[in-house]
Specification:
It contains seven helices and no strands. With about 200 residues, the protein is an all-alpha fold. The chain has one domain.
C-alpha cells in the first residue's frame, strides 16, 4: 500500500508540473498562471472522483467491501484525490497570495470540508480489516458530500464572470456528469439494500 501510494504521489506531482507548464504557455502573468493551474488541477481531481464514483456505482459498495484488494484500491483512490487536491490547494494559496486576497472566507467552507474528508478517510479505512454496514454507508455519505461540493463549485462558476473564463458548456457538462453519477449510485444503493432485505428474510 505504501509503495503504491509513493508511486501514485510521484505520478501526480509529475502531472501537476505539466499542468503548471501548460498554464505558463497561456499567460506570463504569475498570479493568472497559478489561477489556471488551480483550475486544471481541480479538473484532474474531478476526473479522478468521476472514475471512483462510476466504479462504486457499477460494482456497488457492498461488493467492493467484500474483497481486501478492492478495499485497498478504494482507499488508495481516495488518497490520490486528496493528494492531488493538496497540490490544487498550493496553487490556490499562491494565486491568492499574489493577488493579496484572503484565502479562508465563508465561501471556502465547502473546500475545507472536502480536504478533510479526502485526507482523513484513507487513514481511517486503511486501519479497518473489515467494513461494517455503517462504514460502507459512511464512505458513500462522505463521497456524496465531495460530489455536492464539486456540483456547487461548477454551478457557481457557470454564472460567475472571471478572467480567462471557461466555456459554460464545460460547467453544464460537469453538472450533468455529477447528476448522472448521483442517480447511478442511488440506484445501486437501493438495489444492494433490496438484496440485503431478501437475505434477511
Amino acid at each position: 500500500m505504501i509503495k503504491k501510494l509513493v508511486i501514485t504521489t510521484a505520478s501526480l506531482f509529475v502531472i501537476e508540473i505539466i499542468v503548471y507548464l501548460y498554464a505558463a504557455q497561456i499567460t506570463d502573468i504569475l498570479d493568472m498562471r497559478f489561477q489556471l493551474s488551480a483550475r486544471y488541477s481541480a479538473r484532474i481531481s474531478f476526473l479522478m472522483f468521476t472514475g471512483l464514483a462510476l466504479w462504486i456505482g457499477i460494482e456497488g459498495m457492498k461488493e467492493i467491501s467484500r474483497y481486501q484488494n478492492s478495499r485497498k484500491l478504494l482507499s488508495l483512490w481516495v488518497a490520490a484525490i486528496g493528494i492531488n487536491h493538496l497540490i490544487h490547494f498550493y496553487f490556490l494559496v499562491m494565486n491568492h497570495h499574489l493577488k493579496d486576497i484572503a484565502l479562508v472566507v465563508p465561501n471556502s467552507a465547502g473546500g475545507i470540508i472536502v480536504y478533510l474528508i479526502l485526507l482523513v478517510m484513507p487513514v481511517v479505512l486503511h486501519n479497518l480489516s473489515e467494513w461494517s454496514f455503517l462504514t460502507k454507508n459512511g464512505v458513500l455519505l462522505a463521497l456524496a458530500i465531495v460530489g455536492a461540493v464539486f456540483m456547487l463549485a461548477n454551478l457557481k462558476r457557470l454564472f460567475q464572470k472571471t478572467e480567462l473564463a471557461s466555456s459554460p458548456y464545460y460547467y453544464i457538462g460537469a453538472l450533468i456528469i455529477i447528476a448522472g453519477l448521483l442517480i447511478l449510485n442511488i440506484y445501486r444503493l437501493i438495489e444492494d439494500n433490496k438484496k440485503r432485505s431478501i437475505v434477511r428474510k
